[in-house]
């Protein structure tokens, strides 16, 4: 059987344990997951693209079933380039649904071969977002249980 490859696109600014939870669940279904960081020049990020890629490479360095990459432009074009037809996305509490539904249908409109698979994280990560994590660290707090240690360290450095 052909290798089942899925692409998990996102900003990862920064990666949280919610993302890792989704990747682990995805690996029950797929042989390989490509964690693809979107390069979006019109958005401002806390960590630039190199910093985000460095953190991801460090965190997943012992997992050959996880590839770290970045892309710009249309996601469907990136999938084609990688020989993948599956997009993995995480669905948290209801807030994600509207936009995820729109994006999944739009991607299918552009390329009918593309399927989007939604995975639901553990309840403890259902209200976790990169934005919330950044706000907490910016205010001098920390939530070590919600981010990998590499990310915790980087956030503390950034806001010290
Ligand atoms: P955004 O798309 O809002 O910039 P990310 O790029 O961080 O957010 O997210 C990439 C994907 O990971 C999205 O599908 C998002 O719903 C999912 N995700 C983010 N945080 C979590 C979490 N805590 N649990 C499950 N899925 C998550």
A few lines on this structure:
The protein is an alpha/beta fold.
Ligands and ions found? adenosine-5'-diphosphate
CATH homology superfamily name: HUPs
- Secondary-structure-based class equals alpha/beta
Overall number of structural domains = 1
Cα end-to-end separation: 50 Å
CATH architecture: 3-Layer(aba) Sandwich
User: What percent of the residues sit in helical stretches (DSSP H or I)?
Assistant: 25-40%
In sequence order, what are the helices and strands, one letter per element? EHEHEHEHEHH
Task: Describe it.
It is a single chain. Strands 3-2-1-4-5 form a five-stranded parallel beta sheet, with helices on both faces. The chain has helices at residues 17-26, 49-59, 75-82, 97-110, 130-138, 149-159; strands at residues 5-10, 32-38, 66-71, 86-90, 115-119. It has a single domain (5-158), classed as HUPs (Rossmann fold), CATH 3.40.50. The chain is globular, with a radius of gyration of 15 Å. It is α/β, with parallel strands linked by helices. It is built from six helices and five strands; from the N terminus they run E-H-E-H-E-H-E-H-E-H-H. The model has no long low-confidence stretch (mean pLDDT 96). It binds adenosine-5'-diphosphate. Residues 10-12, 16, 18-19, 22, 89-90, 92, 96, 121, 125, 128-130 line the site of adenosine-5'-diphosphate.
Set down the secondary structure blueprint.
Layout: E1 5-10, H1 17-26, E2 32-38, H2 49-59, E3 66-71, H3 75-82, E4 86-90, H4 97-110, E5 115-119, H5 130-138, H6 149-159
Parallel strand pairs: 1-2, 1-4, 2-3, 4-5
The protein binds adenosine-5'-diphosphate.
């Amino acid at each position: 059987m052909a290798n089942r490859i899925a692409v998990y696109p996102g900003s990862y600014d920064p990666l949280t344990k919610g993302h890792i939870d989704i990747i682990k669940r995805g690996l029950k279904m797929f042989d390989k997951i490509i964690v693809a960081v979107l390069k979006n020049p019109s958005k401002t990020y806390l960590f630039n693209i190199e910093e985000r890629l460095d953190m991801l490479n460090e965190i997943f360095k012992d997992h050959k079933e996880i590839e770290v990459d970045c892309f710009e432009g249309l996601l469907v074009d990136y999938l084609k380039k990688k020989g993948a037809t599956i997009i993995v996305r995480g669905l948290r509490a209801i807030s994600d649904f509207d936009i995820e539904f729109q994006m999944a249908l739009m991607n299918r409109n552009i390329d009918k071969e593309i399927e989007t698979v939604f995975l639901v994280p553990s309840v403890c990560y259902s209200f976790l977002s990169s934005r919330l994590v950044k706000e907490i660290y910016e205010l001098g707090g920390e939530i070590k249980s919600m981010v990998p240690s590499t990310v915790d360290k980087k956030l503390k450095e950034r806001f010290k």
